[in-house]
């Protein structure tokens, strides 16, 4: 099993780049490669025919006859395989290198063949290196050193000392250059992958925060409108202009968050500052239409809790909120953006599902592991707060839902637990920062 795992890893190491990664696509003709491969194949045929006409080998001597047959067979294989580089570049290049190495094992067949065969293997090495620099380096070393070694063993090639030293020096230099290219390519690929991951993470964060902000604001507006409708039927309409103004601000804030998210998702990062006059970007409460992805501090988290609890109070909810004034140890520079989004979701769920007459209790604290949020209330109906509830009741969406935050917390070593007993609902969450 260990051997198979190592072999699989080694094969991945030499895997050529795909078309999506900037490599050559298999199964589709490549005009330039096709033309070059065809010209090389024609040169092979022309030069081999010229050798035959000039008495390349004689059938009278069995030794030379066998040598000529091997040379012709190898040349024919290369002439047939080389043009396929234009259609299946990497596979055909590997086949060409393999034929060359087989011919190296019969030194006379390679060293007495047409010199144009070197063009075939050179093209194959270039194509192989284009797909994977490391594989190209190995192919180059094998295709150069193998005929030298086998020719020396068979006493066909007699390199002198200076030639061997020069060849070794050239190979070492080329290998060093290839190693630098491979290292630079790997580093560039890692940086590109990291950049793509950061971009995906940023887009996901923006999309989720946009959804939360808009959904929760509009849900709050709907609840205010329902409360106003009940007040109108009961003959109580005091403070109606103030309530209307507040709802207008919520709708404007939702639109502002949408514009900011669109700017970020379209790549116009600098456009985030365009709406700075609308509100404070660092304000996570959303009262001023803040940015949908700015870092949140403990003080800003307290401001959010205060603003959201005041919202609930204005629509008839009473509750108890417990949150330390000072910054807990270990959270001085922590990014609490996810905690702010989670608290918004909690307040939205209270407004949507809790019984206003029974109130609620919310506790927010911090420790080294992250933010601890405890919430208890009495739902208007059983299961309203459920963590796996996917379909909102009465057509009002309140953001991503607790299931999203439970998955987020568990992926990072936190937790989110819910208990519901005798009509009372409670939740305890640990959100790592």
UniProtKB/TrEMBL annotation:
Gene3D superfamilies: Histidine kinase-like ATPase, C-terminal domain (3.30.565.10). The keyword Transmembrane helix applies. Keywords: Membrane, Transmembrane, Transmembrane helix. Residues 270-293 are annotated as: Disordered. The chain crosses the membrane at residues 32-52, 64-86, 92-110, 117-140, 160-187. Residues 270-286 have a biased composition (Low complexity). InterPro entries: HATPase_C_sf (IPR036890), MFS_trans_sf (IPR036259). This is Histidine kinase. It comes from Bifidobacterium callitrichos.
């Amino acid at each position: 099993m260990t051997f198979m795992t190592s072999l699989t890893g080694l094969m991945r190491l030499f895997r050529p780049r795909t078309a999506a990664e900037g490599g050559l696509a298999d199964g589709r003709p490549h005009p330039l490669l096709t033309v070059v491969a065809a010209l090389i194949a024609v040169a092979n045929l022309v030069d081999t025919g010229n050798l035959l006409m000039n008495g390349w080998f004689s059938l009278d001597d069995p030794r030379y006859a066998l040598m000529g047959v091997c040379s012709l067979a190898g040349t024919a294989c290369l002439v047939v395989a080389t043009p396929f580089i234009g259609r299946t570049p990497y596979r055909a290049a590997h086949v060409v290198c393999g034929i060359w190495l087989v011919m190296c094992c019969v030194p006379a067949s390679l060293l007495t063949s047409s010199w144009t065969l070197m063009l075939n293997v050179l093209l194959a090495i270039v194509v192989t290196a284009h797909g994977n620099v490391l594989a190209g380096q190995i192919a180059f070393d094998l295709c150069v050193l193998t005929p030298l070694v086998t020719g020396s063993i068979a006493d066909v090639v007699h390199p002198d000392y200076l030639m061997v030293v020069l060849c070794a020096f050239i190979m070492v230099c080329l290998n060093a250059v290839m190693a630098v290219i491979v290292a630079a390519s790997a580093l560039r690929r890692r940086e590109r992958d990291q950049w793509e991951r950061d971009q995906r993470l940023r887009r996901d964060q923006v999309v989720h925060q946009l959804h939360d902000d808009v959904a929760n604001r509009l849900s709050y507006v709907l609840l205010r409108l329902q409360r106003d409708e009940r007040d109108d039927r009961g003959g109580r309409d005091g403070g109606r202009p103030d309530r209307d103004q507040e709802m207008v601000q919520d709708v404007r804030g939702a639109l502002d968050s949408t514009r900011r998210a669109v700017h970020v998702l379209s790549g116009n990062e600098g456009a985030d500052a365009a709406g700075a006059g609308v509100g404070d970007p660092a304000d996570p409460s959303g009262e001023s239409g803040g940015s949908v992805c700015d870092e949140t501090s403990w003080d800003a988290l307290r401001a959010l809790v205060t603003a959201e609890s005041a919202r609930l109070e204005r629509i008839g909810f009473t509750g108890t909120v417990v949150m330390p004034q000072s910054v807990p140890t270990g959270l001085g520079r922590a990014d609490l953006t996810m905690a702010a989004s989670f608290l918004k979701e909690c307040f939205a769920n209270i407004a949507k599902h809790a019984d206003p007459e029974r109130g609620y209790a919310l506790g927010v604290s911090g420790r080294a592991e992250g933010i601890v949020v405890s919430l208890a209330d009495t739902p208007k109906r059983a299961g309203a707060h459920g963590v796996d509830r996917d379909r909102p009741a009465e057509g009002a969406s309140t953001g991503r839902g607790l299931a999203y935050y439970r998955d987020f917390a568990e992926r990072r070593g936190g937790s989110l637990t819910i208990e519901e007993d005798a009509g009372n609902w409670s939740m305890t969450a640990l959100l790592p920062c």
